[in-house]
Amino acid sequence: MKDRYILAFETSCDETSVAVLKNDDQLLSNVIASQIESHKRFGGVVPEVASRHHVEVITACIEEALEEAGITEADVTAVAVTYGPGLVGALLVGLAAAKAFAWAHGLPLIPVNHMAGHLMAAQSVPLEFPLLALLVSGGHTELVYVSEAGDYKIVGETRDDAVGEAYDKVGRVMGLTYPAGREIDQLAHQGDDIYDFPRAMIKEDNLEFSFSGLKSAFINLHHNAQQKGESLSNADLSASFQAAVLDILMAKTKKALEKYPVKTLVVAGGVAANQGLRERLASEITDVKVIIPPLRLCGDNAGMIAYASVSEWNKENFAGWDLNAKPSLAFEGIE
Ligand code: KG4
Ligand code: ZN
């Protein structure tokens, strides 16, 4: 059979990324151009700046991805692209580039949901279905039931902030640079859990999350201390915040595993890079196989989009040239 080479594009937020996947499982290249330096001084991603950066670097990313993979444009057999969720202007840059490439070479265009990408980044090891996934990123916190590759159903999600968003907001209050998740994780390992932050809905018998109360409690504590001229230790604040976050994530994940008894749990998305979360999963979830993508595939990257496109390609779920960005694209709920 002829070799299959998928050229995948990811531009939903602040990473411009292009990857090449050979024969469904060999990731030959995964070029990631991060714009974080440009957004740091604003304390978050500025959509207009993000779109402009994507335009500037996307062509170079395509060339580099092909070169690193050791193939030419003519070898590519399909094009995959993130069409949502994400920032509309940012998504449109990847869509325009992917469509132009596919059209010029007469190739099928495969539309991919960014969250399916995060989940299928775990495909770097073979997955067994059905499985449950805990997806934790800057924009999402959700539990997803996956009966087979390509069939994703939400069984629980956050009512307000995403967990990564909460990390970034409390990081800003502590004066850390954006995105703060990684630094808070490191600080948490140096401090003590001495502040009793709320663990919203932890005892409730549902699979919903809420992080806005935790964020407000953190901000209030910090603000009150500042007004009294006291300075709190960022390490202890981080340890206490992270302990609350992990208690919530672990409790809801365990509840989901009780309700949907599967043999595999995937934990993915930017926050899956969290060392504290990895430690708790390893010590507390022992009767289910836990798969976490390698660190380089946890953050936004086109490799995960390529992996997620395989099942869509097999179903011949191709898009027309009118494929548009869907900033609020979401998985369906379970019946
Ligand atoms: O998935 P991702 O790269 O982008 C989105 O699709 O949102 O996730 C980015 C988020 C940021 O909020 C960042 O602070 C968080 O992931 N993050 C972490 C860690 N590394 C990245 N949060 C907690 N602990 C980490 N080690
Ligand atoms: Zn993401």
Write the SSE topology.
Elements: E1 5-10, E2 15-22, E3 26-34, H1 36-40, H2 47-69, E4 78-84, H3 88-105, E5 109-113, H4 114-120, E6 131-136, E7 141-148, E8 151-157, H5 163-173, H6 181-188, H7 212-227, H8 234-259, E9 264-268, H9 275-284, E10 289-291, H10 302-314, E11 332-333
Parallel strand pairs: 1-4, 4-5, 6-9, 8-11, 9-10
Antiparallel strand pairs: 1-2, 2-3, 6-7, 7-8
Bound molecules: 5'-O-[(R)-(carboxyoxy)(hydroxy)phosphoryl]adenosine and zinc ion.
Task: Describe the model.
The protein is of the alpha/beta class and 335 residues long. It is 41% helix and 20% strand. The protein has 10 helices and 11 strands. It has helices spanning 36-40, 47-69, 88-105, 114-120, 163-173, 181-188, 212-227, 234-259, 275-284, 302-314, and strands spanning 5-10, 15-22, 26-34, 78-84, 109-113, 131-136, 141-148, 151-157, 264-268, 289-291, 332-333. The strands form 2 sheets. A 6-stranded mixed beta sheet has the order 10-9-6-7-8-11, sandwiched between helices. The protein has a 5-stranded mixed beta sheet with strand order 3-2-1-4-5, sandwiched between helices. A hairpin with a 4-residue loop joins β1 (5-10) and β2. α2 packs parallel to α3, α5 (163-173) packs parallel to α7 and α6 packs across α8 (234-259). The longest helix is centred in the last third of the chain and has 26 residues, at 234-259. The protein is globular and about 65 Å long. It starts with a strand and ends with a strand. The model has no long low-confidence stretch (mean pLDDT 96).
